[in-house]
């Protein structure tokens, strides 16, 4: 079995790279957390999750106490998360806020509605990186299920490969958890990993815009 890549191995937690197409929890077989636990040889405590279709950074605590503290930081929105996505349709706007309540739709999906009682709040920037291909850097300001996938669909630009949300067919869903930033024990922590593997993300990695997205927290959010 292939080894998962560790981005960081800290005293209280690890940051690991989850491949796309792998369930976070064990469902039809061992999931990412169980397999990484076997690889490292000690218990891991999940404090957030990624959809099966999403690749990228996952933070896992090494103790229940660290898990409690990290979960508290996520709940208080004190951990900044930045994602990369590719879309093939032209969005209604090239950057800005996407806000609205999320309502259940069909077959386990969601939709954005106009009310804002408990809204999903997302901000993004985008840039054309190839013919009929636009890259987005996205920051969610709330933590809703499928939030980024729903947000981009709501502006007419579903994520490439995201068939559940009417994306163009592709070899994967092009959504990647790119960067995590937060304060821990008095230190500022910054973890980042570009998407791995072949495929359409290569157009973004080769484009000059990617250099300007290397420190995503420095963008104007």
What would you note in describing this structure?
- The model has no long low-confidence stretch (mean pLDDT 95).
- With 221 residues, the protein is α+β, with helices and mostly antiparallel strands.
- It is globular.
- Strands 1, 2, 3, 4, 5, 6, 7, 8, 9, 10 and 11 form an eleven-stranded mixed β-sheet that branches.
- Helices cover 18% and strands 34% of the residues.
- It starts with 5 loop residues before the first strand and ends in a 9-residue tail after the last helix.
Distance between the termini: 40 Å
- Sketch the topology as an H/E string, one letter per element: EEHEEHEEEEEHEEHH
Mean pLDDT: 95
Question: Main β-sheet: number of strands, strand sense, barrel status?
Answer: 11 strands, mixed
- Rg from C-alpha positions? 17 Å
Taken as a percent bin, the fraction of beta residues is 25-35%
Counted by DSSP, the helix tally is 5
Indicate the low-confidence ranges by residue numbers. Answer: none
Number of strands: 11
Helix-residue proportion: 10-25%
Structural class label = alpha+beta
What would you call the shape? globular
Organism: Pseudoalteromonas maricaloris
GO biological process, one term: enzyme-directed rRNA pseudouridine synthesis
Family: Belongs to the pseudouridine synthase RluA family.
GO molecular function, one term: RNA binding
């Amino acid at each position: 079995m292939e080894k998962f890549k560790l981005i960081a191995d800290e005293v209280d937690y690890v940051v690991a790279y989850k491949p796309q197409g792998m369930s976070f929890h064990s469902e039809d077989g061992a999931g990412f957390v169980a397999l990484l636990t076997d690889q490292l040889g000690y218990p891991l405590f999940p404090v957030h999750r990624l959809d099966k279709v999403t690749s990228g950074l996952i933070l896992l605590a090494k103790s229940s106490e660290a898990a409690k503290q990290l979960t508290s930081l996520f709940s208080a929105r004190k951990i900044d998360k930045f994602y990369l996505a590719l879309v093939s349709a032209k969005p209604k706007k090239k950057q800005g806020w996407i806000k609205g309540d999320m309502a259940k739709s069909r077959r386990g999906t969601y939709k954005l509605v106009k009310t804002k009682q408990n809204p999903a709040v997302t901000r993004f920037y985008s840039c054309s990186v190839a013919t009929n291909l636009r890259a987005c850097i996205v920051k969610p300001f709330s933590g809703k299920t499928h939030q980024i996938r729903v947000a981009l669909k709501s502006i007419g630009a579903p994520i490439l490969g995201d068939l559940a949300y009417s994306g163009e067919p592709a070899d994967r869903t092009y959504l990647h958890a790119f960067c995590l930033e937060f304060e821990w024990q008095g230190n500022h922590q910054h973890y980042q990993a570009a998407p791995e593997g072949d495929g359409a993300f290569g157009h973004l990695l080769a484009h000059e815009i990617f250099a300007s997205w290397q420190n995503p927290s420095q963008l104007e959010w």
